[in-house]
Specification:
By secondary structure, this protein is mainly alpha-helical. The protein is built from twelve helices and two strands. α1 packs antiparallel against α12 and α7 crosses α9. The longest helix is centred in the N-terminal third of the chain and has 63 residues. The protein is flat.
């Protein structure tokens, strides 16, 4: 009797094992089928992305190492060299453009983050008028950069510009704002901050409204004032959104082209020449394809490394706060 029961139990266990194995095989088959379907649907989009994004980047990298000659049929690659990058490291113009672009990025991003945070804090406390204020804030951001740059060019004009008139009231002389190295650089930064601060404010506002009200109330019960609540409640929870805003702005500011192209053309001299402006001049005005591609590639590498360092620092800070 006992032997018969053991045989039945063994048979039931074997049957469950077979069913489970069959179920696993069916599950793996369905998962594989779903994976193939996903690749089938995503394939065309990935192919388009590869053609319009990845290929130009790779081609630019190849050209940065190429000896390129120009002829009536276009251009041809005569070989490969690292001389294009060697010429960059010996160019004082490249070092100046790198320094100006870095300074421009640091100042504009820091000021925009401070002003954007203040604007977001004010917007968060607004009631029914928040929508109207957001619409007003979006006006500078919605303008095409070429249009806003031309608008600022009128404002800075040395003959009829309102900025020139306002400064002359205090100094007694008409300044040539876009004709001096320091003032033209400051003018570029003001125009950039005016246009992009609303973008930063809206990103930070999206993070602020996600913070639960209970945490403000708990901090208030603990006796924390507004300043302490900002640093102990708001900033730690806003840090992921803050990081996104910084990355977006660093990427945009380091590659700025249209604003200085319209306002100063990189001048006076090369005082406001960014890396993007320098790359454009070398590539399309001087028709030096290899060095121009080297400038573009080195700019992408520098800004990519900067973003990676910032992300690593942010991740280490977040990990330290969790521990």
């Amino acid at each position: 009797m006992s032997t018969a029961r053991q045989a039945q139990a063994t048979s039931r266990a074997l049957s469950r094992t077979i069913k489970q194995d069959r179920g696993n095989r069916v599950g793996r088959s369905l998962a594989s089928k779903k994976s193939r379907s996903a690749w089938l649907f995503a394939g065309p989009a990935l192919l388009v992305i590869a053609v319009v994004t990845v290929f130009p980047v790779l081609y630019s990298v190849v050209l940065s190492f190429a000896k390129v000659s120009i002829n009536y049929d276009g251009f041809q690659i005569d070989g490969f060299t690292v001389g294009n990058y060697g010429a960059l490291t010996q160019s004082s113009d490249w070092y100046h453009a790198l320094a100006f672009t870095s300074l421009y990025t640091v100042i504009t991003v820091v000021v925009e983050l401070v002003l954007g945070m203040l604007s977001a804090l004010v917007l968060e406390r607004l009631g029914a008028t928040r929508g109207w204020m957001l619409a007003l804030l979006l006006i500078p951001w919605s303008l095409v950069t070429i249009v806003s740059a031309q608008l600022w060019k009128y404002i800075y004009d040395s003959t009829y510009g309102i900025a020139t008139w306002g400064i002359s009231l205090f100094t007694g002389s008409d300044p040539v704002i876009l004709g001096e190295p320091v003032s033209s650089g400051a003018a570029l930064m003001v125009a950039d901050i005016w246009k992009t601060t609303p973008f930063v404010a809206i990103i930070l506002l999206a993070g602020l409204v996600m913070i639960p009200e209970e945490q403000y109330e708990a901090a208030e019960l603990d006796g924390a004032g507004a300043w302490k609540s900002f640093w102990r409640v708001v900033m730690p929870q806003l840090m992921p959104t803050f990081t996104i805003a910084v990355l977006f702005r660093v990427l945009q500011a380091f590659g700025v082209f249209d604003l200085p192209f319209v306002l100063t053309q990189g001048g006076p001299g090369t005082s406001t020449q960014t890396l993007a402006i320098m790359g454009y001049k070398v590539l399309f005005q001087d028709i030096n394809i290899g060095p121009g591609a080297a400038i573009a590639t080195s700019t992408a590498v520098i800004v990519g490394l900067g973003c990676l360092i910032f992300l690593r620092a942010f991740r280490n800070q977040a990990r330290g706060e969790r521990e």
